[in-house]
């Protein structure tokens, strides 16, 4: 029973890698968009739209195991994150604070154009890390990718063999994640190309598919993957016994500008956490 639920979540995350890859491919070739410098091919789809579609597909494929809430557009995030992801299972609750960036092609190279974005004089990367540390959450960057046939991506993913993350084709890298601490190092040195970032990135499915007979609890296995591969033990992720107060803030009518645009809860339905009922009650309120 545990494997059935885990496989369902795992397959849902694998599927969005393909969804995002195909979405970016089509958005580059169909339609046009205009800037002050001219008219270009493609519709230049935004990161928020990609995140909308990704979370919609996750919810559609696993509606009983994922709860996704989008906050109002008027809430302009000042905390450096696009969305929070909470994984709830019997062995505890862990939180991931995630900033999303999409890949662009410029001057014959692939770059994450807005990787070094600042808001109100503060760097997004610094706000992400600081706010994640406040709650013991994992600070991550999530990358939305597509590149043309012929890009030698295999040169930059040798680190994946140690993690057990398998890449059968480039679509498996349509959505990747990386440690915000490693991304900060790139930003500090003015680096934001795909060839640099891919060396420290992992397919997003690895967050929920990493498991063994000794770790059937989802929050435990996700934390282990992050600890031993993404962060390499340089950062400690807090395990909550009860849902923290920040998780209840998402449901309040007066929302702070410190909240992200989205929040997602992954619920281990085979080994559920007792706090899941509290979330369900909040969702039922009018």
Description of the structure:
It is built from ten helices and 13 strands. The model has no long low-confidence stretch (mean pLDDT 86). The chain is globular. The chain has one domain (2-284). The longest helix has 28 residues, at 2-29. 36% of the residues lie in helices and 21% in strands. By secondary structure, it is α+β, with helices and mostly antiparallel strands. The strands form four sheets. The protein has a seven-stranded mixed sheet. A hairpin with a 2-residue loop joins β4 (83-89) and β5. It has helices at residues 2-29, 47-61, 124-135, 160-163, 180-188, 194-197, 206-209, 218-230, 245-249, 276-284; strands at 32-35, 38-41, 66-70, 83-89, 92-102, 104-106, 109-111, 118-119, 122-123, 138-144, 175-179, 202-203, 262-267.
For the structure shown, list the relevant keywords.
286 residues; alpha+beta; seven-stranded mixed beta sheet; two-stranded antiparallel sheet; 10 helices
Question: What does the secondary structure layout of this molecule look like, with pairings?
Answer:
Blueprint: H1 2-29, E1 32-35, E2 38-41, H2 47-61, E3 66-70, E4 83-89, E5 92-102, E6 104-106, E7 109-111, E8 118-119, E9 122-123, H3 124-135, E10 138-144, H4 160-163, E11 175-179, H5 180-188, H6 194-197, E12 202-203, H7 206-209, H8 218-230, H9 245-249, E13 262-267, H10 276-284
Parallel strand pairs: 4-13, 5-10
Antiparallel strand pairs: 1-2, 3-13, 4-5, 6-7, 8-9, 10-11, 11-12
């Amino acid at each position: 029973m545990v494997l059935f639920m885990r496989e369902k979540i795992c397959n849902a995350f694998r599927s969005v890698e393909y969804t995002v890859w195909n979405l970016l491919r089509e958005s580059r070739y169909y339609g046009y968009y205009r800037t002050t410098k001219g008219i270009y091919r493609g519709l230049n789809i935004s990161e928020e739209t990609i995140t909308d579609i990704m979370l919609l597909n996750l919810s559609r494929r696993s509606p009983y195991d994922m709860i996704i809430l989008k906050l109002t557009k008027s809430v302009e995030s000042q905390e450096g994150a696009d969305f929070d992801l909470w994984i709830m299972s019997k062995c505890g609750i862990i939180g991931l604070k995630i900033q999303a960036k999409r890949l662009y092609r410029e001057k014959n190279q692939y770059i994450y154009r807005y990787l070094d974005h600042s808001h109100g004089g503060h760097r997004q990367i610094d706000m992400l890390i600081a706010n994640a540390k406040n709650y013991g959450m994992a600070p991550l960057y999530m990358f939305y990718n597509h590149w043309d046939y012929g890009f030698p991506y295999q040169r930059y993913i040798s680190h994946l063999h140690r993690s057990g993350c398998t890449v059968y084709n480039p679509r498996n890298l349509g959505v990747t994640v990386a440690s915000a601490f490693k991304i900060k190092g790139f930003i500090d040195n003015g680096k934001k190309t795909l060839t640099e970032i891919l060396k420290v990135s992992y397919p997003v499915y690895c967050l929920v598919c990493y498991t063994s007979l000794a770790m059937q609890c989802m929050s435990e296995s996700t934390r282990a993957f992050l600890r031993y591969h993404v962060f390499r033990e340089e950062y400690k992720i807090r395990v909550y016994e009860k849902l923290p107060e920040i998780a209840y803030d998402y449901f309040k009518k007066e929302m702070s500008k410190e909240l992200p645009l989205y929040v997602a809860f992954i619920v281990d339905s085979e080994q559920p956490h007792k706090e899941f009922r509290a979330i369900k009650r909040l969702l039922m309120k009018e």
